[in-house]
Amino acid sequence: MVFRRRFSLPEKKTIRIHVAADERYDLFLDGGFVGRGSERGAPHLWFFDSYDLTLDAGPHVLVGRVWSLGLSAPRSQMSLRPGFLLSPDDDEGDAPLLGTGTSDWEGKLLRGYSFSPPFTHPYYSIGYNVTVDAGLLEPEWRTGDGEGWEPVRKMHSGSNAIERTRVGGEHLLSPSVLPSPRFSSWCRGVVRHAFQGDTNGRLGSGFLEDNHQPELACEWDLLWKNKSRFSVPARTTTRILMDFQDYVCAFCRVVVSGGRGATIQIHWAESLFCETDDMSTDGKDQLGAREKPKGNRGEIFGKIFCGIGETFLPDGRAAVEFDSPLWRAGRYVLITICTSDESLEVESFVLTDTKYPLDICGEVRCDDPRIAPLFDRAVRTFSVSCHDAWVDPYYEQMMWAGDGLQNMLFNVVVSRDARLAAKWLRLLWASRLPSGLTCARYPARDNLLIAPYSLYWVQGLKEYAWWCDDMALVRELLPAAREVLMVFEGFMGSNGLLGRLPGWNFVDWVDGWDTGIPPGADSGASSILNWHYVLTLVHMAELEESLGEPEMAARHRRIAARCAQGTIEAFWNEERGLFADDVSKANFSEHAQCFALLSGVLDEKMAARVAGSLLTAPDLKQTTFGFTHHLFETFGQIGCIDRLVQRLQPWFDTAKLGMLTLPEAPEPSRSDCHAWSTHPIFHLVATILGIRPDGPGFRGITVRPQLGPLKFIEAAVPHPSGFVRARIERHSGGIRGEIHLPPRLSGRIISGGKEIALHGHTAFDLPCPANNRC
C-alpha cells in the first residue's frame, strides 16, 4: 500500500513526527527519502521512529509506502494487522494537519508486486523472492501523483507500551531504541564472469573460464561505475556475475528502458557451490547447505550459483525504476537478463548499503601477523550482522538468544555503543513463553524453544552488568533471570540432576551430534546441560551479590552445589579424570569439561585432573566456532594460552578458503557470516591481555595478562568514560609495559603473585604468571 497526505503551510516550520507501520514503511517528503522503519519489534513492543521535518511555506506531500507480506515476509517479521501511523508531536497544532487519525490521508494498493518461495532450504527464513511487473507499476507514487487515491479507513491509534492504557488487539507503541540505519552507495566490486548468447541457447549450469567474455564484462563495469549504459540486444540472454570482494547488505535499484517482454533476475549468494550429482542446475534444489560443499569462496569456475533475490519485468517504457522492499546480503550477485523481441538498456544499477551505524573504536595488535587480518574480518562480520537486531544476514536475519553472549562480548571490546546488546536483552525478556523460558530467537513468528539458550540470556545479563554502565536495565530484567533459573530448578530430580529439558537441546554443531544435541540430552540427563546450569547459577549469584542481594545469591549457590554434586556422582569417570556427556559414560567432550571448570565448584584436586585430561585426552568431541568461546575462557582460567592460540587455527584457515567473513561452523558451513565467531577478538583483550571489569558498570578494572606464545600485545578498549589503553611485552624476566586509564577509573594489574595499583598512567615490570609460559 501507499499513503499520502497533501498539505500546505503559510510559513516555514519544523514539525516533529512519529511514524510506525505494520509491517514496514518507507517515508518520503515531496518525493525525497526521509526514513525507513519500523524498527524490528513485536506487537506488544512495537517501535515507532521520530523525524524532524523542516518545511518551507507552501504545498507539500508526505508519502508512506507500507508493505505487509504475511508468510512471504522474513520469519523475524511479526505482525498484528497491516496499517500505517503518522503522529505529529504537537497533538493540538499539527495533528489536524498531518495525523493519520485526524487529517485526510488517502491511500491505494501498489500493484505489480508478487512473491514466490526461493529455493527450498531447511534453514532459510528471510522471506520470499520478489517479482516486480513494470506493466502494473505506478511510478508517480513517490510524489503522491497519479490516480486511484481513496480515503483511508481509520483503525486504532495504538497504545502506550509502558502504561498499556487500552485493550483490544492494538499495537503497544514504544519509541525506537536504536539510531537510524546508515545508508551509503556501494561502489566496489568486479565482474568475475560475463556471457551473452542466443536466448534459445543453453548457458550451462556452471561458470566456465573459456566462455567468459571480457569485453562484455568491461561494458557492465562501465555501467557499475555510472559511466555508461548497458545494452542488451533482442532475443539474447546475458549473465553477469559480480563479486563485491566483500560482504554486502544492500537494497537494489535498477533503472531500465525498453525491453518489453524481458526478464531481469538479480540474485544474491554468499558463495558459489561446487557442483555435485544431487544438485539441480536451476537453483531449486533441496539445498541443505550445511552439507553442500562450497570450496574456496573466491573461486567461481566449475561451480554453480544458487541464490535468492528479485525478478524485474520491463514493459517497454523508458526509465522504469525497479526496487525491492527487502535488503539482501552476500558477496556475489548474479544478473541474468533475457530479452524478447525488443532490446533493453540498463541505465543504472545501484546498491544502497545498509547497516547499524556502529562506531568501531577498539583496537588490538600483537606480534602474530595472523591477528591483524583476523581482526579486520571479525569487524566486517560483526558490522554486517548489525541492523535493527543482531542477525545472520543471509539465511535467517534472526536474533538468537544463543548467539547474543558472544556478540555482546565482541561488541563491548570494540565499541562503547551497546544499544544492540540492550535490545537483545530486552526483546528476549519480552519473548518469554508461559514456562518462563525465553524463545530461542526473537522477534519471530514461531516460538522455537532451546532451553539452554535461556541460560545464555541470563549469562548475558551478568556480562552486560559488568561491561556496561546501565544498572537500571539490569535491575529491570533481574526478576525474569531469576525466573529462568527457577524454571530449570523445576526440572531437577531428587538426585539433583536436570532431567530432559523441553524443546531442541542444541549445544554445538559437533560432527556426530544429531542436530547439535549432545548424547543424553534428549533421552535423559546430560552433564553438559547440568554443568551449564551450575555455571549460570554461579554467575547469577555474583550478580545478586553486586546488587546487594546476599540472600538470593546464597540460594543460587545452594542450588548450584546440589546440582553439581548430582552431576559429579552421575558423570564422573575416575579412571579418565573426565566428566562423561551421558550416564552411560560412553561419550566425552570438551564441552562438559569447560562448563565444569568454569563453574568454579570443583575441589582443587578434581579441577586439576579435569584440566589435565582436557588438554591430553585424544578422543574428546571438540568445540566448534560458537562454543569455543567457553573453551577459550577455560584456557584462560587454567593458564593455557599456548593452547588458545593453537585453537585459533580454524579461524586462520577460513582465510585460506577465501572467506571474507567468519562462518557459523566448520566446513561445510551453512552460513559464511556469523557474528558468534568474532569472540577470539574478545579473548585477545580479556583473556590474553587480561583486561576485565572487576564489578558492575565497569567502574573498576583488573588486568591479568597471560601472553603465552605472544611477544607483545596492545589494545585500546572502549570504556564508558574513555579508553583503557595497554601495551605489554614479554622479556626474559617476566612482562613489562604500561597502562593508561581514563579519569576516575582505577584498578590493579596482577601477575606472578605480584599486584600493582592502576590509575592514570602506570608503567610496570612484573614476573610471569606462575601457571603460564611467558
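The record above closes out task 2.4. Task 2.5 opens with a second protein, given below.
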Amino acid sequence: MIKNYLKVAWRNLLKNKAHTFINVAGLSIGMAVAMLIGLWIWDELSYDKYHQNYNRIVQVMQHQTFNGDVGTQKSIPLPLGAALRQNYTGADKDFKYVVLSTWTEDHILAYNDKKITQLGNYMQPEAPDMLTLKMLKGKRSGLKDPSSILLSASVAKALFGDADPMFKVVKIDNKWIVKVTGVYADLPRNTSFNDMAYIASWDLYMTTNPYLKKAVTQWGNNSWQIFAQLNPKADINKVSAKIRDLKLKGLAGQNDLIGVSFKAAIFLKPMREWHLYSEYKNGVITGGEIQFVWMFGIIGIFVLLLACINFMNLSTARSEKRAKEVGIRKTLGSIRKQLITQFFTESLLVAGFAFLFSILIVLLLLPWFNQVADKRMTLLWGSPLFWLIGIGFSLLTGLISGSYPAFYLSSFEPVKILKGTFRAGRFAALPRKVLVVLQFTVSVTLIIGTIIVFRQVQFTKNRPVGYSRDRLLQVNLNTPDIHNHFSSVRYDLLNSGAITEIAESSSPTTDVRSDNSGFNWKGKDPKLQDDFGTIAVSPEFGKTIGWKITQGRDFSKDFLTDSSAMIVNEAAVKFMNLKNPVGETLRWRREFKIIGVIKDMIMTSPYDPIQPAVFFLTKEPVDIADIKINPKTSAKDALTKIEAVFRKYDPGSPLDYKFTDSEYAKKFADEERIGKLSAFFTLLAIFISCMGLFGMASFMAEQRIKEIGVRKVLGASVFSLWRLMSKDFVGLVCISLAISIPTAYYFMYNWLQKYHYRAQLSWWIFLATSIMVLLITILTVSYQSIRAATANPVKSLKTE
C-alpha cells in the first residue's frame, strides 16, 4: 500500500511540474537559509566552550564613574592582580587561579634567519591550565621558567617546519631569548583567545621592562588584563561583592593620583558573557553579539515561514482542483483514511526533496557565507541534533501543509462532487490572502531594515575624519632601532622619493592607546573629572597625517620650547571651556603651553563622540611610524624602498605595515557584515515571496480561464484583463505595506538610538521600498496575467 501511495504521489508531482518546482525550490531555499543561520547561531552560542573551565573562568573588570557617567573597561592595574593572588587564591578560597596578562599584540619571533610577526600574550604560568590548552608537545607547566615560550602548532610549523620545536631557542623582538617548552593546538575561531599564537612568560615581561617597576604600585594605571578561575564552591556574585572596593582602598592615600578621580568598582564577568554580552551603558549590560543572534534567529524563522506559507498556499489552492479525484476514489471504494494518507504522502515527499536540496544549497553557499560572516563553520554531519531538527522539521512541514487537503477534501460527499454541485466556500481563499499579506509584510520589513543598516554605515563612513588617510602607512616598531636612527631613516626615505614625510607616534591614527587624568588648567571646576587621550608624537606628525590646524600653529623643530608644548583637539577645548586656548597653560605631570588646536580626528570608534585628546613631543621610543607615500610613486615601489631602508637600520625585524584606510575600514566591519548578511537573506525572502506569488497567479489564471475567455469574446482588451488579474494581488501587497512600514519604523528607530552619530529615517526610504515592492509584484503577476489574457478564447471555452 505504501508503495502505491508513493507511486501516485510521484505521478502527481510530475504531472504538475511547475507547481512542484515552485514548492521544492521555495521550501529548500527557506530550509537552507534557516540551516545557515542555525549554524551561525550555534557557532555564536558555543563561543569559548572550547575551554573546559568555561563555566568558572572570569575576567576581572571595573566600572568607573566619570562626571556622573559610568564607564566599563577591561583594563586593570597591576597591584590588583597581586592582591587577588595573595589574599583570594587557594584551595579553600575564592579563586583557583588568578592570571595577569598583557593585551594580545604583534611581536617578532625569530629563529635563525627566519622572522615572523605574530600576535601573542605575556601571561602568568597558570594560564595554560586555566584555558585547558591541548598540548601537542611539552606540558602546560612550561611557562614556569621565565625564559620560556609556548607556541601554537601553526607558529611552530612556520618557524621550524617539520623539525621538533622543543627547547629550540627563539628571539622575541630581537631583544629577549627564550626556549620553546611546549606546543599547543591552534585555538578555534570561536574563542576569545583565537588570535593568541603564542604565550610568553609573564616574569620575562616584568624583568625586561624597567617602567613596570613603578606600575606594580600604581593603582591608577589601568593597562593590563586579569583572568581568573573560580573554585567550584565560589559564587561569582558574592566574590564580586567581596573584591568590589579593592581598587578604591589601594588608591586611598596614594601619592600617585592617576585615576583617583574615578570612582572604581571591581567586578567579575563570566566567560559565558564575554562574547554575547560585551556592551555596557552606565554600568549596565545593554547588549553585544546577542542582539545579532536574536536578529538573525528571527530572520531565519521568518524566511522559513515564508517558504512554508508558499508550500501551504499552493498545496491548498491545488487541492481544490482535486475534488473530482476524491469523488471518483470514494466511489471506487477508497475510505477516508486512505485519502488522508495519500495527501500526506505527497506533502511529505515534497518536504523530503526540499530538505535534501537544502543541504546541497548549504554546501554550495557555506564557503561564501563563512567568508562574509568571518567564520569557519561546517555542516554538523555527525550531530544527531542536526538530523533530528532537519528531519523533524521536514515531517512537520509536510504534515501541516498536507493537513488541509487531507482532512478537508477527504470529507466531501462523492455525489455532490460528481454532479458538479460542489463549490468551495465563500471564504476558501481568505486564508491564502492572509498568508500572502504576511509574506510581504515580512519581506518589506526586511528590505527597509537592510536599507537603513547600509545607510547608517555609509553615514558614519562619510564623517570627516580630520586627517588624510590616503597613502598613509602605519608601521609597528617592535624594537627601538628605527627610533634610535630616526633622522637617518627619514633622510634616506625622503631622498629615495618613496615618501613625502615620516613621523613617530605612541598611537596609530586609528586608535588611542593611552588616556590619562590629572590635568589642570585655568578656571577648571574642582569637581570636574578629566580624562584625555594622550598621544606622544614627533614634530613631523601633523604634516605626515595632514591634520587641520584651526588655531595657532603646528609643532616645529625651529622652536626649542615645543618640548613643553601641546596641541589639543576641538573636543578638548570644548571640554575645558577655553575661549582662547592658544597660549593657555595646561598642567599634567609638568607644565605645557597650548600652541595649537586641530580639528577633531576620529581615532577610536566612529560611532562614539570624539574623545578630548592632547598631543605632545617625546624623545622616548614609541610604537608607531607614520609614513606618507609619495603620490608620484606606486605603492608597490614605495614599499620596496621603505622595506630596504628599514632593514638597513633594523635588520632583525620584518616590515610590519598596515594601510591606514584599511585599518579605518575595519571599524565598520561588524555593521557591514551584518548588512551584507541581511541583504542576502532579504533577497532570498523576496525571491521566495515572488515564487509564491507567481504560483498563486498561475493557479488563479487557470481557475478563471473560462471567465477570461468569455470576457475576450465580449470585447475585453488585454490591458483590462491584465488589470483584472493583477488588482487583487496589488491590493494584498498594499495591505502588507500598511502593516510593515510602521513596524519597520518602530524597530529601526530604536536600533539607531544606540549610535551617537546616526542617519535620519528619511521618508524616501519607505516610499522607494513601497514602489519597488509594488513593481516587483506587478512584474511577477504580469506574466501569468498577460499569458491568460492573450490565450485563444476558443480553446478556453471548449467543454472539458
